[in-house]
Every structure is written in C-alpha cells, then in structure tokens.
Amino acid sequence: MQIFSLILLSLSLAMDAFSVSLCKGLKLKTKLFKSAVIIGLFFGGFQALMPAVGWLLGRGIIEYIDKFDHFIAFGILAFIGGKMIFDAIRGEDDKTSDKLNIKELIVLSVATSIDALAVGFTFSFNNSVNIGLYAAVIGGITFAVCFGGVFLGSVFGTKFGKPASVIGGCVLILIGIKLLLEGLGVLSL
Question: Phi first, then psi: what are they for 77, rounded to 5°?
Fold first, then answer.
C-alpha cells in the first residue's frame, strides 16, 4: 500500500473518533490541552491497537465479531449520545464539564475502532504489510485529528453551550445509526 493510500485510510478510520472528540470538546472549559492529549491518546491508541489485533487474529474470530459489531457500536454511541442530550437539557453537563471519565473513553475508543479491527484483518491477507508501520500511522493520524477535534469542539461549546451539547449528542447517535446501517448492508459508504 502506498503511503498516500495509507494516509487516506487512516483519515477515514479516524473520522468517527474525530466526531466523538469534537463532542467531548463541547463540554470542556479548562485543562483543554491535557484533556486533548488524553482523548487523542485513547482514540489514537485504540485505532493503532485494533488493526494489529485484527492482523493477529486473522480469519477465525473476525467473522464472528463482524456479525454483531455494528450493534455494539450503535448501542454504545446511542447511549452516550442520549446521555449527552439528557444531561444538556437537565443542565447536568455544566457540573462535569472538566472531568474525563476514563471508563467512558475506553468504551468510546473501542466503539469507534471496531472498523480498524476489520481493516487489520484484511491486512493479514497481504504478506508485504508492515503492521507495525501501518498501526503507527493509523494511530498517529487519529491522535492528531482527535487532538484538534477537542479544541474545535471546545470553541463551539464555549460559544453555544447547551445547544452544542444537544447537537453533539445527536451526532453521536447519527454515527451509531450510520455504523448500524453499514453493518446491516443497508448503507454503503
């Protein structure tokens, strides 16, 4: 795979994580740099880890996971998006605006990197793939994109507050629906 193709693949894999990072940034008011680094490391780390895991697992387990991964991703993103909307309407988002929930970050990182697991599986068919390099590029690009997404989300969150959190929650739900429809074969992008 050429480096340009790898960069495009990395950017496409990072888009769901970018959207979630943007939504996380909506709630941040202080400690922005530290939070952006942490969020970028979680999403970038999982996006790097999953192709390597997919590559190692090969055909055996991926076929089993592939049958229901879209349901898991949809459920997680719909739940967290719904919670964001609910908290914004109730005014709860202001109380926890500067705290990152590590368990939530892990769950979101897994939900947005399941597609990278499948990509890693496809890499296992090609003996010329340097999985270490590919995983590093995918993870690095995801880190950078998510780092920027947190800052961009913070700008919108500071200016628009609760409406931005409601929109962010809706975006997460829509990403979940998109992943579900793609997994069911109804939508192909």
Answer: -70, -40
Tokens coding 131 = 């999985």
- In whole angstroms, give the CA distance from residue 8 to residue 173: 25
Cα(42)–Cα(111) distance, integer angstroms: 12
Q: How high is the pLDDT of residue 98? A: 61
Nearest CA to 52 out of 109, 111, 133 is that of 133
Residue 32 Cα distances to 11, 87, 185, angstroms: 23, 21, 39
pLDDT tens, residue by residue, 49-78: 999 998 888 756 656 666 777 787 788 778
Owner of token pair 């790898």? 6
Cα gap 88→55, rounded to integer Å: 40
Q: Give the count of beta carbons closer than 10 Å to the beta carbon of residue 183.
A: 20
